């Protein structure tokens, strides 16, 4: 089944793991939002909901990260705080600077009129720890010769616990930042050949640990993490050959032993290749969900996505680039899905195609 969206509809309803947008409509929140505010993340603790908002002022060159806490049952607001406020400097393009992989949501937003988007350099990202007790907020600072990620950790009462500035080194592309229950900060990078670099930074000790996976003959994109424990992280991704989906991959990183303990790669079956080749829907496949079950089974859900616009070709390997943010009339499509399930040994359990 092919689903088509206008840009405006999609940006209010798109939900991607680690993405910038939440699925709820703005009108579902029991508080008003200004035209220059957007809800970017919703944290739920039973009836206590916390909405995180970005407020941006391009004339004053000011960005703010705010939070509004309310009781979902009574719709009564219980707290409202400004978590961060920063003056936005001018974007610096340096040839030896680290980069940021463009998300599908940002690729969509890059074509919206300026008054309907959160400008790239004003954006924040927000997520929570697996136990939902700690909140991570971060933004990319493009205004310095080196690319920096400005991070903030908050407790469940929205009290700031720490803030850390972390660099993205030359030759690396950042895909995501996330945390574990111990409040370690993880940076997920790749290099230009799609080699994987997973860095753990411990704010209490300021120690950093790097684990990496070498590049291969395949291209890799759509990286998603799954935190199994404070020390064990899985990273999943799709692989491509000549812009066509060739397989899926997941990797086990163990920071207690300091080793990459497992790399599982599964090439598409002949039957699945035939089904994909028969599809008339344009687009590229993205990993949209990745889960490790209590039985240590691995579930990877893929979906075909595309953006069509005159003079624009969607590229899942593109990086954030201010020069590419210009209004265009676009058609956003989401097509068929399929789900892979692997057992604890890496053996394929099922391969389900949903056209």
UniProtKB/TrEMBL annotation:
Keywords, in A-Z order: Signal
Signal sequence interval, chain numbering: 1-24
Name recorded for this polypeptide: DUF5050 domain-containing protein
Organism expressing this protein natively: Rhodocytophaga aerolata
Lineage: Bacteria, Pseudomonadati, Bacteroidota, Cytophagia, Cytophagales
């Amino acid at each position: 089944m092919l689903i088509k969206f206008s840009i405006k509809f999609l940006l209010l309803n798109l939900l991607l793991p680690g993405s910038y947008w939440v699925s709820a409509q703005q009108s579902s929140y029991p508080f008003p939002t200004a035209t220059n505010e957007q809800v970017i993340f919703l944290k739920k603790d039973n009836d206590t909901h916390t909405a995180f908002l970005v407020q941006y002022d391009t004339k004053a060159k000011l960005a703010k990260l705010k939070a509004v806490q309310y009781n979902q049952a009574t719709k009564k607001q219980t707290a409202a705080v400004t978590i961060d406020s920063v003056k936005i400097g001018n974007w610096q393009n340096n040839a030896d600077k680290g980069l940021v992989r463009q998300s599908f949501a940002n690729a969509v937003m890059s074509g919206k009129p300026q008054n309907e988007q959160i400008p790239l350099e004003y954006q924040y990202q927000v997520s929570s720890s697996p136990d939902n007790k700690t909140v991570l907020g971060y933004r990319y600072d493009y205004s310095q010769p080196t690319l920096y990620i400005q991070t903030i950790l908050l407790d469940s009462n929205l009290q700031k616990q720490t803030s850390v500035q972390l660099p993205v080194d030359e030759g690396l592309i950042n895909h995501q930042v996330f945390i574990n229950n111990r409040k370690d900060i993880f940076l997920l990078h790749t290099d230009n050949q799609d080699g994987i670099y997973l860095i753990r930074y411990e704010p209490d000790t300021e120690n950093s640990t790097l684990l990496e996976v070498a590049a291969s003959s395949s291209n890799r994109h759509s990286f998603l993490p799954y935190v199994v424990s404070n020390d064990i992280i899985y990273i999943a991704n799709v692989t491509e050959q000549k812009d066509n989906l060739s397989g899926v991959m997941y990797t086990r990183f163990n920071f207690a032993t300091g080793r990459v303990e497992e790399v599982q790669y599964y090439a598409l079956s002949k039957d699945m290749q035939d089904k994909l080749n028969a599809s008339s829907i344009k687009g590229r496949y993205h990993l949209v969900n990745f889960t490790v079950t209590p039985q240590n089974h691995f579930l990877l859900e893929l979906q075909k996505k595309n953006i069509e616009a005159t003079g624009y070709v969607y590229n899942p390997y593109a990086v954030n680039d201010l020069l590419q943010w210009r209004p265009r009339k676009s058609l956003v499509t989401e097509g068929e899905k399929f789900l892979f399930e692997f057992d604890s040994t890496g053996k394929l359990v099922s391969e389900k195609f949903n056209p």
